[in-house]
């Protein structure tokens, strides 16, 4: 009966259901072996003290706690999140712990591998690297990618991830090294097997009728690091491509959330709030700046905002925390609708200090933080 309740509960993530079942069964077997009574805080403390020697890392303990918290609540209606001593014990395990993180590839190393490594041996790895870094893909997303998810459109490839970890589909575009992708697709098309998987085993310049498994995707960053003679190649794990994508986006001063391109859809008549937050100076700092400015020039330090070349009234100030709300009904419902926001600081000679371009929005809220 307990298994039936566990499986049918909507509180259990579908993808992790087996792990939750296994964790709960292991805990119940431990309780039976110890001949313990009903679940209590003291019982769980004893259990996690034993698990600490097995799981080693604090993150694994927290993962076990999370699974037991859900399964115990579902099956026995006991909320272990109220056990304060247990949570304090788990938090103490974080002291002095430094999690191991995968190393990342620099842009120079990426280009070196894509341009210098022989395609006869490394073509599959090159395409995997392009997909993994451009789309910030996880290993299981690369493994599950299908032929229908990769579309060639003119001088670019549009790749769709239909079922990401968040449960929502996303898209990204490949615009460089297209010849590598085209070459792989050409070799992939020669296979006679009707497999929907995009990545098939590649060796000695040809593809074979065998899909690439997830463990192979996890090992590919390490193999690339060995080819490039990088230090500690074993530290380039299956998360290397995704972390590299985040690192490159950060170095380019580009928001991480814009790495993937959402599917194109028609713009609806909705309100799109655009929030621009400036660092606020204290009153003393502001008065000091204003006094110095008045001595140097009689012209006020006027800051103006323009949306599609139309000035927003009431936002002329030397220091502010602004919120600009754009009503979507004021713009056409075209798939090519662009919204341009320009901030002009008169103190810098009247030149625009930043320009924000928002394109192809559909029922979305955008928050833009600008610190200067």
Structure characteristics:
12 strands, hpI Integrase, Chain A, four-stranded antiparallel sheet, three-stranded antiparallel sheet, 3 domains, disordered N terminus
Extract low-pLDDT stretches: 1-5, 254-301, 314-337
CATH topology of the largest domain: hpI Integrase, Chain A
Rounded to the nearest angstrom, the distance between the terminal CA atoms is 60 Å
Helix content: 40-55%
**N-to-C order of helices and strands:** HHHHHHHHEEEHEEHHEHEEEEEE
Provide the CATH superfamily of the largest domain. Answer: Intergrase catalytic core
Number of helices: 12
Description of the structure:
- InterPro entries: DNA_brk_join_enz, Integrase-like_cat_sf, Tyrosine_recombinase_XerCD.
- One of its GO terms (molecular function) is site-specific recombinase activity.
- This is Tyr recombinase domain-containing protein.
- Keywords: DNA recombination, DNA-binding.
- By secondary structure, the protein is α+β, with helices and mostly antiparallel strands.
- It has 3 domains: 2-92, no CATH class; 107-258, hpI Integrase, Chain A (Orthogonal Bundle); 271-369.
- Helix content is 40%, strand content 17%.
- It has helices spanning 2-8, 17-34, 41-55, 58-76, 84-92, 107-116, 119-134, 139-143, 178-188, 214-227, 240-251, 283-296, and strands spanning 150-153, 156-161, 170-174, 200-203, 206-211, 271-277, 303-307, 310-311, 322-327, 338-345, 352-359, 366-369.
- It has a 4-stranded antiparallel sheet with strand order 8-7-10-11, with no helix packed on it. Strands 1-2-3 form a 3-stranded antiparallel sheet, with helices on one face.
- α7 packs across α9 (178-188).
- The N and C termini lie far apart (60 Å).
- The model is unreliable at 1-5, 254-301 and 314-337 (pLDDT under 50).
């Amino acid at each position: 009966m307990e298994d039936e309740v566990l499986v049918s509960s909507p509180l259990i993530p579908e993808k992790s259901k087996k792990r939750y079942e296994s964790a709960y069964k292991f805990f119940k077997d431990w309780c039976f072996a110890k001949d313990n009574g009903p679940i209590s805080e003291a019982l769980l403390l004893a259990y996690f003290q034993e698990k600490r020697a097995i799981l080693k890392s604090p993150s694994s303990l927290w993962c076990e706690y999370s699974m037991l918290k859900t399964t115990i609540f579902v099956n026995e209606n006991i909320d272990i999140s109220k056990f304060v001593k247990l949570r304090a014990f788990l938090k103490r395990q974080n002291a002095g712990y430094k999690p191991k993180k995968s190393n990342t590839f620099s842009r120079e190393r990426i280009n070196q591998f894509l341009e210098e490594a022989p395609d006869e041996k490394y073509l599959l790895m090159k395409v995997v690297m392009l997909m993994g870094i451009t789309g910030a893909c996880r290993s299981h997303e690369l493994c599950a990618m299908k032929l229908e998810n990769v579309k060639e459109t003119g001088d670019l490839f549009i790749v769709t991830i239909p079922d990401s970890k968040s449960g929502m589909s996303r898209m990204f575009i490949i615009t460089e090294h297209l010849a590598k992708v085209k070459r792989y697709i050409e070799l992939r098309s020669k296979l006679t097997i009707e497999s929907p998987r995009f990545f098939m085993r590649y060796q000695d310049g040809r593809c074979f009728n065998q899909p690439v498994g997830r463990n192979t995707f996890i090992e590919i960053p390490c193999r690339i690091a060995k080819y490039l003679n990088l230090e500690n190649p074993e530290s380039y794990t299956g998360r290397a491509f995704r972390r590299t994508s985040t690192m490159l986006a950060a170095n380019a001063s580009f928001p991480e959330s814009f790495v993937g391109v959402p599917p194109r859809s028609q713009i609806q008549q909705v309100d799109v709030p655009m929030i621009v937050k400036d660092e606020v100076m204290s009153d003393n700092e502001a008065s000091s700046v204003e006094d110095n400015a008045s001595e140097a020039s009689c012209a006020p330090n006027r800051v103006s905002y323009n949306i599609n070349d139309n000035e927003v009234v009431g936002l002329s100030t030397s220091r502010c925390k602004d919120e600009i709300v754009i009503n979507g009904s004021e713009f056409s419902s075209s798939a090519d609708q662009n919204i341009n926001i320009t901030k002009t600081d008169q103190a810098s000679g009247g030149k625009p200090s930043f320009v924000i371009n928002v394109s192809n929005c559909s029922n979305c809220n955008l928050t833009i933080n600008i610190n200067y």
